[in-house]
Recover the amino acids of this structure.
C-alpha cells in the first residue's frame, strides 16, 4: 500500500461494512479490467523480414480481454483505454491536403487547405489528424502474367500512385494488366480512399455540388543525423511531395 | 473502529492488516475540497476544449460533415476496422439535423458551465460524462487529451452520484439534486467546516491509481518505439519538415557550445535548482537564516537558471544537442515508468511529482500540438495532493475572498 505524506485521519463517517465490501469488489474488478485493457494490445510493429509486423498481446490476457462480457463493459463505458497512443510515434510523414474546387469547365475557382491556417490551433490539430489518415500507403503487390477476366465479367480495377513528375504523383485506377511490369508502386489503402471520398463529398456539398480535386502534400521526416552527417541536406532534398487523387466525387 | 486506525503513529500503521489498509486507502473519508477543486479545474478545461468547436460543429460531428453517412456505412462493413462500430454517441441522434446539433452543442456548453460552478452536480456530472463521451466518439479525430477527459469525467460522475447520501444534515432535495452544496462558493469554507466524504476518497484514489497505470503503460509503450529508445523523439516535433529549412540546419551545425560547456551548465542548473528548493525545505541550513538572505539566494538561483536555460542551452552544438534531447527523453521515460514509486509519497517526492507535472505540462504545450494535454496531465498529478496540501494551495484565494 503506498505511503501518504499525511497520517491517517479519524475514521468517523466511514460507510457501513456491507458498502465497503461491495465497493471493494467493484473497485477491484474495475481496476482489473482497466489493467487487462492496457495489456491486451499488440506490441510493435517489429521489423520482421523487411516489414513492420505487430506482435500478439500476452496470451493469458488476450483470452480474458477478448471475452464477450469484457467487450460489452468496455463498449458501454468508453472510459478505458490501452494508453498506447499513436502520438508516441513522432517519426512520420507530415501530411496536409488541398481541395481544389472547380467549375463545370474544370477551372479552379477556390483552393481549400487542410489544416486550415486560419482555424484555431485546437481545430488545426484535429484537421491534421484527419490529414494523417491519408498517409500509410502500402506497396502494390507485383503483377505477374496477364489476368483474364471470367466470361461476362470485368477485372476488378486496382489503384496505384503513378509518378508524373519529380515528387509529384497521380492516382491511376485501371485493370491489373495496365500496371507497368518490373516496377514497384505504392497504392492507397481502402481506409485512405474512404476518407478521401468522404472529404471530397463534404467539400462538394459546401460548394454547391462543385467538382473537387483532392491533392495530398507530404514531407518525409528530417532525421536527426542531418546535424552530424555530411553533406548537409540541400533545399531540394527537403521539398515536399504531392499526389493527386483526382476528382473523386464526379 | 479499532484504536490502531485512528492512531497516527507509524508503528501502529505498520501493524495494520490488509483489510484495514485497503479500507483506509480507498474509503477513509477525506475533505471534499480536493474533489471539488479537481471538478472546477476540469470544468474549465472542458470549456476550453469544447468552445473552439463552435464554428465547426457540423463539420466534425454532423452526418453531412467530414465523415458523412455514406462513409459510416462503408466503414462499418465487415472487415473494416476504421471506426469502432460499437462506440456510441448521443450526437448520432441529431447528427442529421444541423439546427438540433447546434442546440445540443450549446446546451452542452451550458451544462459544463453549471458543472464547473458546482450547481446540481448530481445531474450535471452525469450529463458532463455523456457530453465528453459523445463529443469524443469519432476515433479519426481523437487526440490523447480526449482519452484522459473521458477518464476524469467518468470518475467525477461516479463521485457526484454517490456523494452526500449518508449526510444527515441535508434535506431530501439537497440529497437528490445537490443544488448548491458543491458550488464554487462552498469551496472557500474553512478547513474545519468542510465536510468529509468517502466518495471523495474513492474517486480521487481511482483517478490516482488509473492515472498511475496509464503513465506506466505509456512509458512501457514508448520503449517499443524506435525514436524513444534512440532518444530522438523530441527531435521530430521540434524540427517539423514543413518548418525546417536547409539554411537552419547549416546554421545549427555551426553552433558553438561544446559538450564540456554544456555539462558545466547542466551541473550549474542542478545546483541552482537544489539551492532554490532547499531554501523552502524544512530543517535545511538555509531555512534557519533570515528572510532577506533566503530571498537573495532564490533570486541568485533564478538568475543562474535563466542564464543557463536561455544563454547556454539554445547555443548548443549539434552533438551536444542530440545528447541532451536523448537524455531528456530518458528522464521522461524514467519519470513515467517509476511514477508509482513517488506519486503517493511526500517530501522530495512531491517535488518530483509536481515539478515533473509542471515541466511535462510546459513541454507538452510547447512541443506537441495536442491541445490541453499538458493541462490534463497537470490536473491528474494534482489529484495526488492531500487535504492539507489542497487547503494550502487554496489559502491565498481564500484570503482574497475574505478581504
Amino acid at each position: 500500500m503506498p505511503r501518504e505524506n499525511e497520517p491517517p485521519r479519524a475514521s468517523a463517517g466511514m460507510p457501513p461494512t456491507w458498502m465497503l465490501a461491495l465497493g471493494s469488489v467493484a473497485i477491484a474488478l474495475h481496476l482489473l479490467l482497466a489493467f487487462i485493457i492496457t495489456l491486451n494490445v499488440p506490441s510493435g510493429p517489429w521489423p520482421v523480414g523487411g516489414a513492420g509486423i505487430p506482435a500478439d498481446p500476452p496470451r493469458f490476457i488476450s483470452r480474458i480481454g477478448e471475452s464477450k462480457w469484457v467487450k460489452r463493459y468496455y463498449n458501454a463505458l468508453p472510459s478505458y483505454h490501452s494508453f498506447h497512443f499513436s502520438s508516441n510515434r513522432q517519426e512520420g510523414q507530415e501530411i496536409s491536403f488541398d481541395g481544389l474546387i472547380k467549375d463545370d469547365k474544370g477551372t479552379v475557382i477556390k483552393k481549400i487547405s487542410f489544416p486550415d491556417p486560419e482555424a484555431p490551433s485546437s481545430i488545426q490539430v484535429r484537421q491534421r489528424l484527419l490529414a494523417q489518415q491519408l498517409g500509410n500507403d502500402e506497396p502494390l503487390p507485383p503483377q505477374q502474367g496477364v489476368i483474364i477476366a471470367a466470361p461476362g465479367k470485368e477485372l476488378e480495377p486496382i489503384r496505384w500512385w503513378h509518378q508524373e513528375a519529380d515528387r509529384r504523383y497521380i492516382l491511376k485506377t485501371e485493370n491489373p494488366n495496365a500496371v507497368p511490369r518490373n516496377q514497384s508502386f505504392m497504392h492507397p489503402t481502402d481506409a485512405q480512399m474512404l476518407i478521401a471520398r468522404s472529404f471530397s463529398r463534404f467539400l462538394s456539398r459546401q460548394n454547391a455540388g462543385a467538382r473537387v480535386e483532392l491533392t495530398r502534400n507530404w514531407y518525409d521526416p528530417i532525421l536527426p543525423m542531418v546535424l552530424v552527417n555530411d553533406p548537409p541536406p540541400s533545399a531540394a532534398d527537403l521539398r515536399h511531395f504531392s499526389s493527386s487523387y483526382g476528382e473523386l466525387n464526379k | 473502529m479499532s484504536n490502531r486506525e485512528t492512531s497516527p503513529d507509524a508503528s501502529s500503521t505498520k501493524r495494520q492488516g490488509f483489510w484495514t489498509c485497503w479500507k483506509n486507502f480507498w474509503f477513509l473519508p477525506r475533505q471534499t475540497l480536493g474533489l471539488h477543486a479537481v471538478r472546477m479545474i476540469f470544468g474549465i478545461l472542458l470549456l476550453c476544449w469544447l468552445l473552439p468547436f463552435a464554428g465547426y460543429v457540423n463539420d466534425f460531428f454532423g452526418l453531412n460533415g467530414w465523415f458523412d453517412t455514406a462513409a459510416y456505412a462503408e466503414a462499418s462493413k465487415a472487415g473494416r476496422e476504421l471506426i469502432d462500430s460499437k462506440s456510441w454517441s448521443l450526437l448520432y441522434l441529431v447528427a442529421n439535423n444541423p439546427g438540433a446539433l447546434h442546440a445540443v452543442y450549446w446546451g452542452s456548453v451550458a451544462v459544463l458551465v453549471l458543472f464547473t460552478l458546482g450547481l446540481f452536480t448530481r445531474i450535471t456530472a452525469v450529463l458532463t460524462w455523456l457530453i465528453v463521451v459523445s463529443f469524443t466518439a469519432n476515433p479519426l479525430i481523437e487526440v490523447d487529451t480526449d482519452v484522459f477527459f473521458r477518464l476524469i469525467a467518468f470518475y467525477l460522475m461516479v463521485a457526484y452520484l454517490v456523494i452526500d447520501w449518508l449526510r444527515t444534515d441535508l434535506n431530501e432535495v439537497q440529497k437528490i439534486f445537490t443544488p448548491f452544496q458543491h458550488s464554487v462558493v462552498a469551496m472557500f469554507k474553512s478547513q474545519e467546516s468542510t465536510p468529509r466524504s468517502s466518495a471523495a476518497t474513492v474517486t480521487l484514489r481511482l483517478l490516482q491509481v488509473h492515472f498511475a497505470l496509464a503513465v506506466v503503460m505509456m512509458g512501457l509503450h514508448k520503449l517499443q518505439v524506435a525514436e524513444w529508445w534512440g532518444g530522438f523523439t523530441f527531435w521530430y516535433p521540434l524540427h517539423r519538415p514543413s518548418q525546417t529549412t536547409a539554411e537552419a540546419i547549416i546554421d545549427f551545425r555551426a553552433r558553438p557550445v561544446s559538450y564540456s560547456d554544456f555539462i558545466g551548465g547542466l551541473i550549474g542548473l542542478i545546483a541552482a535548482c537544489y539551492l532554490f528548493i532547499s531554501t523552502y525545505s524544512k530543517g535545511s541550513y538555509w531555512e534557519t537564516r533570515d528572510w532577506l538572505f533566503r530571498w537573495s539566494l532564490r533570486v541568485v538561483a533564478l538568475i543562474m537558471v535563466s542564464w543557463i536555460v536561455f544563454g547556454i542551452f539554445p547555443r548548443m552544438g549539434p552533438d551536444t544537442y542530440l545528447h541532451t534531447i536523448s537524455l531528456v527523453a530518458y528522464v521522461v521515460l524514467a519519470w513515467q515508468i517509476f511514477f508509482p514509486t513517488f506519486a503517493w509519497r511526500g517530501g522530495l517526492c512531491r517535488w518530483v511529482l509536481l515539478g515533473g507535472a509542471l515541466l511535462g505540462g510546459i513541454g507538452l504545450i510547447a512541443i506537441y500540438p495536442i491541445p490541453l494535454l499538458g493541462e490534463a496531465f497537470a490536473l491528474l498529478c494534482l489529484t495526488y495532493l492531500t487535504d492539507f496540501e489542497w487547503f494550502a494551495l487554496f489559502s491565498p484565494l481564500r484570503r482574497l475572498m475574505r478581504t
Remarks:
- Chain B touches chain A through 107 residues (CB under 8 Å).
- Residues 198-222 of chain B form the longest helix (25 residues).
- The two ends of chain B are 42 Å apart (CA to CA).
- Confidence is low (pLDDT under 50) at residues 1-11 of chain B.
